[in-house]
Amino acid sequence: MRHDRKFLIKNSRGFQVKLSLQNTARVLVAIAFLLLAVTRMAPAQTPPPSWATLDAPPTGIVPAGDVLRAGHLGREIADAEDISHFYHDLIGLEIRGTRDQPRPFSQHHGLQEFVDIGQGVPNPYDSMSRVVLLPIPGTAAAPGGPEMTIEAIEIRGIKSAPFHVALRDPGASYLTIFVRDLDKTLALLKDERYPVITAGGSPVELPSWPGLTGKIRAVFVRDPDGTPVELVELSPAPASTAAADSKVLGARVTIVVNDLEKTCRLYQSFVGGDFKFWVTPSWMDDKAYDQLTGEAGPFRMAQAIVPGSPVVMQFVEYKTHNRKPKVQYIQDPGTAHFLFMSKDDDVEIQRVHAAGIHTLSKSDVPVFIGPTTRSFFIRDPQSFFLEFMDNNVKKDPTAK
C-alpha cells in the first residue's frame, strides 16, 4: 500500500499549509510546461557574430588604413582584344594607354616568380603574357584619384584550361558594374550575341538590395571568357566620383564562399580592423534574385568596404553548394584575383604567415616586380586568389 507523505510549509501570510509530495510534483510539472510554452512562443533572436560590427550595410568611402585602396580585379583571359572590346567599347570602362596601341607578349621573370606562374605545369617559365588595364569609373575615393581596374592578363606558352563554376559554388566571383543606361548597354551586348544569364534575357527589378537605394534594375551577362558580369542601373543615379559623361558609375566585387564566417574572419585578419563587416541577420531567399542569377535557394551575405575606396566586397554563401571548390590555376582563363594595395607588404606577410598560409611563390615572401614595387599572391579557402602590393617601401637591392 502506497503512502502519500505529507509535510508542512508556510504560505505567503505565514500560515502553515499541508502539501503532499504527489501534489507538489504535479505543480512543478505544470510550471515546467508553462515555461517551455513561453520559450517556444518567444521570437528567436540571432545576435550578429563578433566579426560583423556594422549595424547596417556599408556605404560611402572608408579611409585608408593598412590597406590603401582597391587595386584591381584581375582576370586571366583568352584574348586581350576581345576583352577590350567587351568592357571598353561596349560597356564603357576606361583603358590604360590608347585603344589601338600594340600590346606585345613578353617574359618577366619577376612576375613569373612571384605567382610561380603556370601552376600544375612542368614548364612555368616558358610562359609569356600581356596585360590590358581597364580602369573602372566611380571606384576612386575622390574625383581624379586612382581607380580600381580590371587587370586582364593573357598568358600563352603553357598549358591552360577555362575555369568555370556555377554561380552558387565557392570560388565563383563576379564584378558588378553600375551603368547609367542599362537598356542601351544590354542592347549593345545582345547585338553582338553575348550570352545573357538572367532568365528571360531582360533586366529584373529587385525589390531591394543591401546598401542600394532607389529603383534597382539588374541583369547578368557573360563576357568573352564566359565570366559572369552583373550590370545594374539605379534610379535615381547614385553619387559617384566618375565623370559626368561616364557610362559607368562604380563597381563592387562578389566572391562566393564555402564558409561565410571563416572567410570574413580571415580577410579581416589580413586587411585589418578597418575592414568592417555587416552580415544579413538570416538566410535570404529572393525569387527576383533567383531569376537574376539563374541560381535558386537560400543564401546569406556579408559586406565590407575596401579601405581607401568606395568599393564594396560582398561575400555570399549558399545554403546548398558544392563543398569541394574547384581548384583554380593562375594561367586559366576565367580565374580571378583581387589586389589590395597595401601600406607595407611586410605587415601583410606576417598576417598571412600567422594564418598558416604560404604564398604562391616558393620564396614565401614579397617579391620585387619593379625597383620599388613588391607583391605576393595567396589562395583563400575557396581557391580564390588574393594579391597584396606595396610601392616605395623598400628598394630592390639588385635593381640597377
What is the overall number of helices?
7
Give me the CATH fold name of the largest domain.
Answer: 2,3-Dihydroxybiphenyl 1,2-Dioxygenase, domain 1
Radius of gyration: 27 Å
Q: Using DSSP, what is the number of strands?
A: 17
Q: Which CATH architecture of the largest domain?
A: Roll
Task: Name the average pLDDT.
Answer: 88
Query: Based on CA inertia axes, which overall geometry fits?
Result: globular
The CATH superfamily of the largest domain appears as 2,3-Dihydroxybiphenyl 1,2-Dioxygenase, domain 1
**How far from one another are the termini?**
105 Å
Helix percentage? 10-25%
Number of domains: 2
Written as H for each helix and E for each strand, in order along the chain, the element string is EEHEHHEEEHEEEEHEHEEEHEEE
Side by side, the strands of the main sheet go 7-8-9-6-10-13-12-11
Low-pLDDT stretches are 1-45
Tell me about this structure.
The protein is of the alpha+beta class. The protein folds into two domains: 6-41; 67-391, Roll (2,3-Dihydroxybiphenyl 1,2-Dioxygenase, domain 1), CATH 3.10.180.10. It is built from seven helices and 17 strands. It has helices at residues 21-41, 80-91, 109-114, 182-191, 260-271, 287-293, 345-354; strands spanning 6-10, 16-20, 67-77, 128-135, 149-156, 173-179, 204-206, 215-222, 228-235, 248-256, 278-279, 299-305, 312-318, 336-342, 367-370, 373-379, 385-391. An eight-stranded mixed beta sheet has the order 7-8-9-6-10-13-12-11, sandwiched between helices. It is globular, with a radius of gyration of 27 Å. The chain starts with 5 loop residues before the first strand and ends in a 9-residue tail after the last strand. Residues 1-45 have low confidence and may be disordered.
